[in-house]
Amino acid sequence: MKDDVLRFYLKNKVSLFGVGEDYEKAEYIVFGVPFDSTTTFIPGCRFGPFAIRLFSENIDHPNIDEAYSKIADLGDLAPTLSVEWMLKRVYRVVKEIIGYRKKPIILGGEHTLTLGSIKAYAEYVKPMLLVFDAHLDLRSEFMDTRINHATWLRRLLEKRADEKVAIIGYRDFSREELEYAKKNIDLLISTQDVERDVDKELDRFNDLIESSEKVYVSIDLDVIGLENNVGVSNPSPNGLTLPQITNFFKKIPREKIVGLDVTEVNPLIDKGASASHAAYLISYILFHKQD
Question: CA angle, 172 as apex, 170 and 175 as ends, to 5°?
């Protein structure tokens, strides 16, 4: 081809870990959701997808070459200010990806996007939803709206009461949310629980993973504490550390993971810590050699 030299020397765009766009050969399909229209505290996580990609290209790992050909980055969802249209687009894209027996990796953007992603699995295998989050996101309504970053999980459970859900790392919640969670969430592990007896909580977590055929992992980066200098749209102190989070990851067989999203990365209010943490967590799930 005449453009072989140009293709060799010129790079088209930043991508997750520098991967290409070979959809047919890939097992994991990456796309971004640059959306933060319902953010109620610090806007800016719409810039998260680009930042995660940028910092991911600085990550090296001994197993990255082996996994490189299994990942394709197809870019970002078409932008919109409408939460309803965002959810419809996420749903359509994820449904297309899993319909071809591939696994989505979604870069956020606000956590509301998970509502559209999980809905797409309804016609296929229904995975256990594993959420890492400082918040429960179970408010009935927030700031006069019913669909936003603080209510999305409540909306999901109202429509699909049989959904199996675990929330890890929560510490910032209302009394009403906690009461609802105790009745509707299969496994609740707070930051305080982890600090009190991590082995006990890992055993409880492992029991749920073993009883689940498939797992969808949703990471709100505010699960990591504010003291770790991460920039997120709704920061909360006294969070989990990276080693504490990856201790939970170690309990999940990679073949059980059917999808992944990382949300609420806000690069406008830090110097790269949030994007770097997000990229590291994705790399750990994809590249870490399991026992």
Answer: 105
Q: What is the pLDDT of residue 142?
A: 66
Instruction: Give me the pLDDT at residue 12, please.
Output: 66
Q: Token pair for residue 160? A: 């699909």
Give Cα separations from 281 to 29, 145, 154, 243, 244 (angstroms): 16, 31, 26, 10, 12
What's the average model confidence in pLDDT over 126-147? 85
The Cα–Cα gap between 204 and 206 comes to 5
How many Cβ atoms sit within 10 Å of the Cβ of residue 252?
19
Mean pLDDT of the 58-87 span:
87
Domains of the chain: residue spans and CATH: 12-287 (3.40.800.10)
CA distance 82 to 33: 12
pLDDT at 106: 98
Residues 287 and 67: beta-carbon distance below 8 Å? yes
Q: How many helices (H) and strands (E) does the chain have?
A: 11, 8
Can you give the C-alpha Rg of the chain in angstroms?
A: 18
Amino acid at 44: G
Q: Phi, psi at residue 252, to the nearest 5°?
A: -105, 115
Angstrom distance (rounded) from CA 106 to CA 86: 13
Q: For residue 250, what are the CA distances in angstroms to 26, 30, 245, 247, 271?
A: 23, 22, 9, 5, 29
DSSP state of 22: -
For range 132-139, the mean pLDDT: 92
Query: Quick check: pTM over 0.85?
Result: yes
Q: Which range has the worst mean pLDDT, 111-115, 119-123, 179-183?
A: 119-123
